[in-house]
Structures are given as structure tokens and as C-alpha cells.
């Protein structure tokens, strides 16, 4: 059971990173809502996504770096070009190049190659895992304590920074959507899911807005403290004495070329 718990907890890093206010100043929330409305109407955009993690599991150090660059065209139909690099233990790495196109019935076909080898074709009903704006929308619905903390320069753009927290209910929803709540089934009957969610604390969320263009520039989520507490409680409930110590765990998304992505097509060799 211990191996299963460790495997599921490691998967939670990815599942909770890429899924979806009484004290909030109304002007700050309106800025964020306006920026989201504008980006949701965009016909094309590019963005970079990064998940960086450094942890020690049962005495073994694990470093992960998950990088993704995505060009997306949303109209007249969705077409994505994705370059994804995964690095593990600072040594193992692989680059996956993918194209995802929307079919006439609304489903999607993905064409992928690993390190330039043969192309594989898969069918999928959704491409939400590649929708950075959609993922940000899921966070926006759960933001509390939005605070404007200053102005910074991000990749040559002047942007207003807002620090926020994500409310507790998000964790319960995210666990259910990712299937991670099935982990509770193998824990003792004394384990309380409600107490677990209530004890996780705040998830730190930061977003930068180009106020002149009224568009998002970047958002970042610091998951270290919340995931450390989650691991501690789940391992304790399962009676596992080995520990997980998290040094760093964060997700960052940077938006680029909104409404300015040059047209592209799925390569002919990918469809052969």
C-alpha cells in the first residue's frame, strides 16, 4: 500500500497543478475580470507553462521540471502546436512535439512524436489540459483576498501584480475532478475528508496584468506549503512512517502573442 500511496501523491503534483471575497477590493477584482474577458475572446495566443518541483521521498531526492510551449489558434476551430520537455533527476529528459486539431464533431485528434521519432495519433474528447486561459478561469472563480502589490516588468511589459489566495473549496473540487479523492478509500475509517480539506491552508496565487492592454501577462501558483501539509496528513492517516519533504513546488504560465500567432498546420508526415 505504501508504494501505491507514494505513486498517487506524486501524481497529485501534476493533477492539481494543471486542472481550474469579502475582503477583496472591487476595483482589483474588476481589473482581473476584464483581463480574463479579453483573453477569452482572443482568436490566437501563445503561452509557456512550467511546473517545477524539488522534493525528497523516503530519503530519495527527486527534481522535476515540466516545460510546455503552446501556440494556439481558437477560430474558426481550435488548432494547437505544443512542445513539451520533461526533465527528471536533472538527467533524464524527453521532448514531445504535438499538434492537436478540432474535428467537425467537436472532438480532437492529437498527433505526437517523442524526440523526433515516429508520429502517434490519438483521439480525445477534450483539449482542456492545454487551455491556460481556461485553467486560469477555474482559479479566478475561487480567488479571495486580492491585493494589488505593485508594478513589475515581465518580458519587457509593464504589469500590475496582484497577490491572492485560492479558497478551500477549490481543493475538494480539484481532488474530485482529478480522481485523487479515491485515495481516501484506502485510508482508515477515522480519516475525515472534511477535516483534511479544512486544514490545508491557503494556496498562494499571483497574477500580473498589463493594464494598458488589459490582458494577463503571467500567473504563478506556489503550492509548496499546501502540498507539504497534504502529504503529511495523508501519510500519517495511512500509517506510513517514510516522509515527503518538499523544497519547491510551483506552476507558472506566461502569456505571449495574444491575437498575434502566425497561421500553421499539422505537418503532412504526422498524418501519414
Structure description:
By secondary structure, the protein is α+β, with helices and mostly antiparallel strands. The protein has a single domain, classed as outer membrane lipoprotein receptor (LolB), chain A. The protein is built from seven helices and eleven strands. Helix 1 runs antiparallel to helix 6 and helix 2 packs antiparallel against helix 3. The longest helix has 15 residues. The radius of gyration is 20 Å and the shape is globular.
What's the layout of helices and strands?
Layout: H1 2-15, H2 26-40, E1 44-57, E2 60-73, E3 79-88, E4 92-102, E5 108-114, E6 120-124, H3 132-140, E7 143-154, E8 157-166, H4 169-178, H5 193-198, E9 203-210, E10 215-222, H6 224-238, E11 244-256, H7 268-271
Antiparallel strand pairs: 1-2, 1-11, 2-3, 3-4, 4-5, 5-6, 7-8, 8-9, 9-10, 10-11
Helix pairs in contact: 1-6, 2-3
Question: What is the oligomer described by this structure?
Answer: single chain
Q: Please tally the helical runs, counting DSSP H or I stretches of 4 or more residues.
A: 7
Gyration radius over CA: 20 Å
Strand order of the largest sheet: 6-5-4-3-2-1-11-10-9-8-7
CATH architecture: Clam
Number of separate structural domains: 1
Strand proportion: 35-45%
Largest sheet data: 11 strands, antiparallel
Question: Which class do the helix and strand fractions yield?
Answer: alpha+beta
What is the rounded distance between the termini?
Answer: 44 Å
Amino acid at each position: 500500500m505504501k508504494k501505491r500511496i507514494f505513486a498517487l501523491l506524486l501524481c497529485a503534483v501534476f493533477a492539481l497543478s494543471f486542472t481550474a471575497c469579502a475582503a477583496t477590493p472591487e476595483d482589483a477584482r474588476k481589473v482581473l475580470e476584464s483581463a480574463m474577458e479579453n483573453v477569452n475572446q482572443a482568436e490566437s495566443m501563445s503561452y509557456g507553462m512550467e511546473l517545477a518541483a524539488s522534493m525528497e521521498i523516503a530519503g530519495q531526492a527527486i527534481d522535476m521540471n515540466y516545460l510546455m510551449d503552446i501556440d494556439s489558434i481558437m477560430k474558426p476551430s481550435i488548432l494547437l502546436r505544443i512542445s513539451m520537455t520533461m526533465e527528471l533527476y536533472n538527467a533524464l529528459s524527453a521532448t514531445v512535439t504535438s499538434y492537436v486539431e478540432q474535428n467537425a464533431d467537436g472532438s480532437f485528434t492529437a498527433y505526437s512524436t517523442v524526440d523526433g521519432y515516429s508520429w502517434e495519433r490519438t483521439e480525445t474528447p477534450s483539449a482542456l489540459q492545454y487551455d491556460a486561459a481556461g485553467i486560469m478561469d477555474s482559479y479566478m472563480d475561487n480567488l479571495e483576498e486580492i491585493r494589488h502589490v505593485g508594478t513589475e516588468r515581465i518580458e519587457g511589459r509593464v504589469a500590475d501584480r496582484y497577490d491572492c489566495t485560492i479558497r478551500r473549496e477549490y481543493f475538494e473540487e480539484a481532488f474530485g475532478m482529478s480522481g485523487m479523492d479515491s485515495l481516501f478509500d484506502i485510508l482508515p475509517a477515522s480519516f475525515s475528508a472534511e477535516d483534511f480539506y479544512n486544514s490545508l491552508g491557503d494556496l498562494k496565487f499571483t497574477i500580473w496584468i498589463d493594464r494598458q492592454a488589459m490582458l494577463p501577462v503571467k500567473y504563478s501558483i506556489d503550492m509548496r506549503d499546501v502540498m507539504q501539509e497534504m502529504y503529511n496528513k495523508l501519510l500519517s492517516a495511512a500509517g506510513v512512517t517514510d516522509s515527503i519533504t518538499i523544497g519547491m513546488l510551483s506552476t507558472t504560465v506566461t502569456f505571449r502573442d495574444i491575437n498575434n500567432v502566425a497561421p500553421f498546420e499539422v505537418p503532412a508526415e504526422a498524418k501519414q
